[in-house]
Amino acid sequence: MTQIPAATRRLTIDAIRAMKGGAEPIVMVTAYDFSTAQVAERAGVDLILVGDSAAMVVLGYETTRLVTIEEMLMLTRAVRRGAPSSLVIGDLPYQSYESSNALAIATAQRFADAGCDAVKMEGAGATVERARAVIAAGIPVMGHVGLTPQQTGDPEGFRVHGKTASAALEIIAAARQLDAAGCFSIVAEAMPAAVGRVLTPCVSVPVIGIGAGVDTDGQVLVFHDLVGLYDAHVPRYVKRYAELKASMIDAVETSRRSVSVTGT
Ligand code: KIV
Pick from 82, 61, 84, 85: which is nearest to 71 by CA? Predict the structure, then answer.
Protein backbone atom coordinates (compact mmCIF):
# COMPACT_ATOMS: atom_id res chain seq x y z
CA MET A 1 0.00 0.00 0.00
CA THR A 2 1.45 3.39 -1.01
CA GLN A 3 2.11 5.71 1.93
CA ILE A 4 0.27 9.01 1.51
CA PRO A 5 2.53 11.83 2.74
CA ALA A 6 0.90 14.74 4.53
CA ALA A 7 1.32 18.02 2.65
CA THR A 8 3.38 20.43 4.69
CA ARG A 9 3.75 23.63 2.73
CA ARG A 10 1.91 26.34 0.91
CA LEU A 11 4.40 27.98 -1.46
CA THR A 12 4.22 31.75 -1.59
CA ILE A 13 3.88 33.85 -4.71
CA ASP A 14 7.43 35.12 -4.04
CA ALA A 15 8.70 31.54 -3.82
CA ILE A 16 7.20 30.83 -7.26
CA ARG A 17 8.81 33.98 -8.67
CA ALA A 18 12.15 32.89 -7.21
CA MET A 19 11.95 29.60 -9.15
CA LYS A 20 12.50 31.53 -12.41
CA GLY A 21 15.45 30.02 -14.24
CA GLY A 22 16.17 27.65 -11.34
CA ALA A 23 17.22 24.02 -11.42
CA GLU A 24 13.82 22.84 -10.15
CA PRO A 25 11.01 23.16 -12.72
CA ILE A 26 7.67 24.42 -11.46
CA VAL A 27 4.93 21.79 -11.60
CA MET A 28 1.33 22.89 -11.88
CA VAL A 29 -1.69 20.66 -12.31
CA THR A 30 -5.37 21.46 -12.54
CA ALA A 31 -7.90 20.23 -9.99
CA TYR A 32 -11.64 20.75 -9.85
CA ASP A 33 -13.01 19.16 -6.70
CA PHE A 34 -12.14 17.85 -3.23
CA SER A 35 -10.70 14.53 -4.42
CA THR A 36 -8.60 15.75 -7.34
CA ALA A 37 -7.25 18.56 -5.12
CA GLN A 38 -6.29 16.02 -2.44
CA VAL A 39 -4.48 13.96 -5.08
CA ALA A 40 -2.60 16.99 -6.43
CA GLU A 41 -1.58 18.18 -2.98
CA ARG A 42 -0.47 14.76 -1.78
CA ALA A 43 1.53 14.30 -5.00
CA GLY A 44 3.46 17.45 -4.05
CA VAL A 45 2.81 19.74 -7.00
CA ASP A 46 3.87 23.38 -6.63
CA LEU A 47 0.66 24.99 -7.87
CA ILE A 48 -2.95 23.90 -8.31
CA LEU A 49 -5.00 25.62 -11.00
CA VAL A 50 -8.79 25.47 -10.86
CA GLY A 51 -8.80 25.71 -14.64
CA ASP A 52 -11.80 26.70 -16.71
CA SER A 53 -11.00 23.48 -18.57
CA ALA A 54 -13.48 22.24 -15.94
CA ALA A 55 -16.10 23.38 -18.42
CA MET A 56 -15.15 20.55 -20.75
CA VAL A 57 -13.56 17.83 -18.61
CA VAL A 58 -15.91 18.03 -15.60
CA LEU A 59 -19.11 19.69 -16.78
CA GLY A 60 -19.23 18.31 -20.31
CA TYR A 61 -19.72 21.64 -22.08
CA GLU A 62 -18.53 22.00 -25.68
CA THR A 63 -16.23 24.95 -24.88
CA THR A 64 -14.61 26.68 -21.90
CA ARG A 65 -16.73 29.73 -22.68
CA LEU A 66 -19.82 28.16 -21.16
CA VAL A 67 -18.73 27.72 -17.56
CA THR A 68 -20.22 30.33 -15.21
CA ILE A 69 -18.63 32.22 -12.32
CA GLU A 70 -20.90 30.37 -9.86
CA GLU A 71 -19.88 26.97 -11.24
CA MET A 72 -16.19 27.91 -11.03
CA LEU A 73 -16.61 29.22 -7.48
CA MET A 74 -18.27 26.00 -6.36
CA LEU A 75 -15.37 23.98 -7.77
CA THR A 76 -12.84 26.40 -6.26
CA ARG A 77 -14.26 26.03 -2.74
CA ALA A 78 -14.10 22.24 -3.09
CA VAL A 79 -10.47 22.42 -4.26
CA ARG A 80 -9.52 24.59 -1.30
CA ARG A 81 -11.15 22.08 1.08
CA GLY A 82 -9.16 19.27 -0.56
CA ALA A 83 -5.86 21.16 -0.72
CA PRO A 84 -5.56 23.38 2.36
CA SER A 85 -1.76 23.56 2.08
CA SER A 86 -1.41 24.36 -1.63
CA LEU A 87 -1.06 27.55 -3.60
CA VAL A 88 -4.37 27.60 -5.48
CA ILE A 89 -5.04 29.70 -8.57
CA GLY A 90 -8.53 30.39 -9.88
CA ASP A 91 -9.10 30.73 -13.62
CA LEU A 92 -11.41 33.68 -14.26
CA PRO A 93 -14.07 32.49 -16.70
CA TYR A 94 -14.97 34.02 -20.06
CA GLN A 95 -16.61 37.44 -19.85
CA SER A 96 -16.11 37.70 -16.09
CA TYR A 97 -13.27 40.24 -16.25
CA GLU A 98 -12.66 41.61 -19.76
CA SER A 99 -14.98 44.62 -19.96
CA SER A 100 -13.70 46.83 -17.11
CA ASN A 101 -11.15 47.04 -14.31
CA ALA A 102 -13.97 47.23 -11.76
CA LEU A 103 -15.48 43.97 -13.04
CA ALA A 104 -12.06 42.27 -13.08
CA ILE A 105 -11.36 43.31 -9.48
CA ALA A 106 -14.83 42.29 -8.25
CA THR A 107 -14.59 38.86 -9.91
CA ALA A 108 -11.03 38.26 -8.73
CA GLN A 109 -12.13 39.15 -5.18
CA ARG A 110 -14.90 36.52 -5.33
CA PHE A 111 -12.28 33.92 -6.26
CA ALA A 112 -10.00 35.09 -3.44
CA ASP A 113 -12.95 34.84 -1.02
CA ALA A 114 -13.54 31.28 -2.30
CA GLY A 115 -9.99 30.35 -1.29
CA CYS A 116 -7.69 31.31 -4.16
CA ASP A 117 -4.23 32.75 -3.56
CA ALA A 118 -4.15 34.17 -7.10
CA VAL A 119 -6.18 34.27 -10.31
CA LYS A 120 -5.38 33.59 -13.97
CA MET A 121 -6.57 35.62 -16.94
CA GLU A 122 -6.20 34.80 -20.62
CA GLY A 123 -4.58 36.87 -23.34
CA ALA A 124 -3.02 40.31 -23.63
CA GLY A 125 -4.69 43.41 -25.14
CA ALA A 126 -7.26 44.70 -22.63
CA THR A 127 -6.32 41.89 -20.23
CA VAL A 128 -3.00 43.64 -19.52
CA GLU A 129 -4.85 46.61 -18.01
CA ARG A 130 -7.23 44.30 -16.11
CA ALA A 131 -4.30 42.34 -14.70
CA ARG A 132 -2.59 45.56 -13.57
CA ALA A 133 -5.78 46.67 -11.79
CA VAL A 134 -6.32 43.32 -10.04
CA ILE A 135 -2.68 43.23 -8.89
CA ALA A 136 -3.01 46.82 -7.59
CA ALA A 137 -6.07 45.64 -5.64
CA GLY A 138 -3.83 43.08 -3.92
CA ILE A 139 -4.64 39.85 -5.79
CA PRO A 140 -1.73 38.20 -7.64
CA VAL A 141 -2.33 37.38 -11.32
CA MET A 142 -0.99 34.66 -13.62
CA GLY A 143 -1.03 35.55 -17.33
CA HIS A 144 -1.73 33.18 -20.24
CA VAL A 145 -0.40 33.55 -23.82
CA GLY A 146 -0.33 31.45 -27.01
CA LEU A 147 -3.48 29.37 -27.39
CA THR A 148 -6.12 31.04 -25.22
CA PRO A 149 -9.21 28.81 -25.41
CA GLN A 150 -11.63 31.51 -24.20
CA GLN A 151 -10.74 33.61 -27.24
CA THR A 152 -10.76 30.65 -29.64
CA GLY A 153 -14.10 29.28 -28.47
CA ASP A 154 -14.70 26.14 -30.53
CA PRO A 155 -12.15 23.42 -29.58
CA GLU A 156 -11.98 22.48 -33.28
CA GLY A 157 -10.03 25.76 -33.60
CA PHE A 158 -7.44 24.82 -30.97
CA ARG A 159 -4.12 24.93 -32.82
CA VAL A 160 -0.45 25.65 -32.32
CA HIS A 161 0.23 29.40 -32.16
CA GLY A 162 3.42 31.30 -33.05
CA LYS A 163 4.34 29.28 -36.14
CA THR A 164 5.53 32.31 -38.13
CA ALA A 165 8.17 34.78 -36.99
CA SER A 166 5.63 37.58 -36.64
CA ALA A 167 3.21 35.40 -34.69
CA ALA A 168 6.05 34.30 -32.38
CA LEU A 169 7.05 37.92 -31.81
CA GLU A 170 3.44 38.76 -30.95
CA ILE A 171 3.42 36.07 -28.25
CA ILE A 172 6.68 37.38 -26.82
CA ALA A 173 5.36 40.96 -26.85
CA ALA A 174 2.17 39.83 -25.07
CA ALA A 175 4.18 38.03 -22.39
CA ARG A 176 6.39 41.08 -21.89
CA GLN A 177 3.33 43.30 -21.39
CA LEU A 178 1.92 40.89 -18.78
CA ASP A 179 5.32 40.78 -17.06
CA ALA A 180 5.47 44.60 -16.99
CA ALA A 181 1.91 44.71 -15.61
CA GLY A 182 3.14 42.69 -12.61
CA CYS A 183 1.93 39.12 -13.32
CA PHE A 184 3.85 36.68 -11.11
CA SER A 185 4.01 33.97 -13.78
CA ILE A 186 2.73 33.28 -17.29
CA VAL A 187 1.24 30.16 -18.88
CA ALA A 188 2.50 29.57 -22.45
CA GLU A 189 0.12 27.22 -24.29
CA ALA A 190 0.50 25.40 -27.61
CA MET A 191 3.47 26.88 -29.43
CA PRO A 192 6.57 25.46 -31.11
CA ALA A 193 9.26 24.40 -28.62
CA ALA A 194 11.58 26.99 -30.14
CA VAL A 195 9.12 29.77 -29.26
CA GLY A 196 8.85 28.51 -25.67
CA ARG A 197 12.65 28.45 -25.49
CA VAL A 198 13.07 32.00 -26.82
CA LEU A 199 10.14 33.43 -24.86
CA THR A 200 11.21 32.13 -21.44
CA PRO A 201 14.30 34.34 -20.90
CA CYS A 202 12.45 37.35 -22.38
CA VAL A 203 10.37 37.81 -19.22
CA SER A 204 11.39 38.22 -15.60
CA VAL A 205 8.80 35.81 -14.21
CA PRO A 206 8.39 32.03 -14.57
CA VAL A 207 6.90 30.75 -17.81
CA ILE A 208 4.84 27.60 -17.26
CA GLY A 209 4.37 25.70 -20.48
CA ILE A 210 1.74 23.34 -21.84
CA GLY A 211 2.67 22.15 -25.30
CA ALA A 212 5.47 24.75 -25.41
CA GLY A 213 8.50 22.46 -25.26
CA VAL A 214 10.77 21.56 -22.38
CA ASP A 215 12.73 24.80 -22.02
CA THR A 216 10.18 26.76 -20.00
CA ASP A 217 10.46 27.29 -16.22
CA GLY A 218 7.74 24.74 -15.53
CA GLN A 219 4.95 22.61 -16.95
CA VAL A 220 1.19 22.44 -16.42
CA LEU A 221 -1.16 19.59 -17.28
CA VAL A 222 -4.91 19.16 -17.09
CA PHE A 223 -5.61 16.55 -14.39
CA HIS A 224 -8.11 14.55 -16.45
CA ASP A 225 -5.71 14.42 -19.41
CA LEU A 226 -2.74 13.23 -17.39
CA VAL A 227 -4.63 10.47 -15.57
CA GLY A 228 -6.63 9.42 -18.65
CA LEU A 229 -10.10 10.42 -17.45
CA TYR A 230 -11.04 12.57 -20.46
CA ASP A 231 -10.94 11.33 -24.02
CA ALA A 232 -12.37 14.12 -26.18
CA HIS A 233 -10.20 16.95 -27.55
CA VAL A 234 -6.99 15.71 -25.94
CA PRO A 235 -4.10 17.67 -27.46
CA ARG A 236 -1.30 15.66 -29.10
CA TYR A 237 1.32 17.00 -26.66
CA VAL A 238 -0.47 15.56 -23.62
CA LYS A 239 1.46 12.83 -21.85
CA ARG A 240 -0.80 10.30 -20.13
CA TYR A 241 0.48 8.75 -16.92
CA ALA A 242 -2.52 6.49 -16.27
CA GLU A 243 -5.69 5.20 -17.94
CA LEU A 244 -8.14 5.82 -15.12
CA LYS A 245 -11.28 5.93 -17.25
CA ALA A 246 -10.65 2.38 -18.48
CA SER A 247 -9.89 1.23 -14.91
CA MET A 248 -13.03 2.88 -13.57
CA ILE A 249 -15.23 1.34 -16.26
CA ASP A 250 -13.64 -2.01 -15.42
CA ALA A 251 -14.32 -1.57 -11.72
CA VAL A 252 -17.94 -0.54 -12.23
CA GLU A 253 -18.51 -3.38 -14.71
CA THR A 254 -17.02 -5.90 -12.29
CA SER A 255 -19.28 -4.57 -9.55
CA ARG A 256 -22.31 -4.72 -11.88
CA ARG A 257 -21.57 -8.31 -12.75
CA SER A 258 -21.07 -9.27 -9.13
CA VAL A 259 -24.42 -7.67 -8.21
CA SER A 260 -26.13 -9.56 -11.06
CA VAL A 261 -24.63 -12.83 -9.86
CA THR A 262 -25.16 -12.45 -6.09
CA GLY A 263 -28.17 -10.14 -6.19
CA THR A 264 -26.59 -7.81 -3.60
O1 KIV B 1 -8.09 25.83 -17.89
C2 KIV B 1 -6.99 25.24 -17.89
O3 KIV B 1 -6.89 24.06 -17.54
C4 KIV B 1 -5.82 25.99 -18.32
C5 KIV B 1 -4.52 25.24 -18.42
C6 KIV B 1 -4.47 24.45 -19.68
C7 KIV B 1 -3.35 26.14 -18.32
O8 KIV B 1 -5.91 27.14 -18.59
Answer: 61
Letter string b/e over residues 48-78, b meaning 16 or more CB atoms within 10 A of that residue's CB:
bbbbbbbbbbbeeeebbbbbebebbbebbbb
100 and 126 in contact (C-beta within 8 Å)? Answer: no
DSSP 64: G
Q: Which residue's CA lies nearest to atom 1 of ligand 1?
A: 51
State the burial class of residue 233 (Cβ atoms within 10 Å of its Cβ: 0-12, 13-18, 19+): middle
**Ligand 1 binding pocket includes 179 (Cβ within 6 Å):** no
Enter the pTM of the model. Answer: 0.94
CA distance 191 to 173: 14
d(CA 195, CA 161): 9
Tell me how far apart the alpha carbons of residues 154 and 165 are, in angstroms, rounded to a whole number. 25
Encode pLDDT of 25-74 as tens digits: 999 999 999 999 999 999 999 999 999 999 999 999 999 999 999 999 99
